[in-house]
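Hi! If you just cloned this repository, the fastest way to understand the data is to look at a raw example. We've pasted two of them here, unedited. The first protein comes first, obviously.
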Amino acid sequence: MKTETYNPLDMLNSQEEVNAYLNLAFLDDDPKVFLLALGYVAKKHGMSKLAQESGLNRESLYKTFSAQGNPRWETLSKVLHCLNIKLQTYA
């Protein structure tokens, strides 16, 4: 039986849905939840394309979204900008 990698982004059909998905992940108490979710979005976009658009190294992007990733805000900001992600805080 052949299996495929699951990417929850396959179920999201618009930029608004992607933004909502990441905003919910951002609100989680565990920051790794947000990094994992952003990693899914980045992989769906294409790491090589994202590296080229952001000016970041492709290998460092993979490391950023790995289980051991601990990215700087500057890196996250560039990635969010390239992916057209708008984070919102809720009071």
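Ok, and the second one:
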Amino acid sequence: MSTPSVKAAQNLSKSPAKKPKSKPAKSSGPSPAVMPTYARQNIVFEKGEGAWLVATSGERYLDFASGVAVNALGHAHPKLIAALNEQARNLWHCSNLYRVAGQERLAERLCEVTFADKVFFTNSGAEACEGAIKLARRYHFANGHPERWRIVTFKGAFHGRTLATIAAAGNEKYLEGFGEPAPGFDLVPFGDLEAAEKAIGPHTAAIMVEPVQGEGGVRVGSNPFLQGLRKLCDEHGLLLVLDEVQCGMGRTGKLFVYEAAGITPDVMAVAKGIGGGFPVGCFMATDEAAKGMVPGTHGSTYGGNPLAMAVGNAVLDAVLEPGFLDQVREAGLRLKQELARVKDENPDVVEEVRASGLLAGIKVKPPMGEVVGACLAEKLLTVGAGENVVRLLPPLNVTQAEISEAVQRLSLALKRVAKPAPKPA
């Protein structure tokens, strides 16, 4: 009698052989194996140093995109490399079923320099915003008001790509094709305090806002606007949730934007720069706001893993060094002044300069994509944004010489897209 293994072998021998998948022919374009959810530039980078990237062709690019405000200390920063290598030799992952020493250290340090008492670590900004939304709703549930679960949010915001965060931002482009938007969000115009107040009702739990809308076009919320939101939350018993994923961690010249506005949030989502290029995010909260987050209410397999925490602590070391944020403010002022000069020299192309520290942008008259492409042709990396804005997001440790070089390349790019003056009749 044949054993099961022999039978299986006999059956296998009788079945027709599967034809191997044909390998796609080599091409200079993107691989068809990668899901095409990005309109990627046809360029591959193989190494970087500081504010510079080197493509596989050997060409050098000045990086004023910083991985969309992620590479806070530029590329291949020696302290980040050392921290990651040291941790990699010891422990990569053990899960949140156990204490993580680096996680406790980074949480304590973040609480020391911010409003927060509690920190939950994530892998991305979207997860940080999603967690902040859950915390805000859970807070009212824990206080005996489960009916308070709606959140006032603002048009032009970008909170991530999860089903909840695209609903919170309300951008039709990101909502299309994913069914009914997740309920519970009441969108109002950015900067409109009166509209925000009118949106508050008996079911409102919180107000969620980006102090500076990066993806939305470098739209800077004024101090009176942010202070007014804090007042509304106090008057109506709401939580004020800030999304400082892009504008936080020193990018505007303050560790976080709320400091400059003179307010204290209840909850804040952070990511991007906090990991300096390694996937790290978190949401922070006061003890009062976080009291509903008890065991079992939230979790993350990878969030706060030893590798991420080693890098996060090294980034915080650098950003908190005496004088570091002063240099960011000086660099931000220099960049804004240089962009103002570019606007004056190119009135037919540049409509407006917008900036908060090293989160800067120019609102252009030609299609934004054309300007980003022209910058790429000048070996300058920039990022598009809403309202036809081109963002410039250099590393926080960018030099004055690199700012001058970037502006020179930007000027050349703008000349590429400028329409020629009409010839006299």
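That's it. A detail worth noticing about the second one: The chain has two domains: 45-71+323-417, 78-319.
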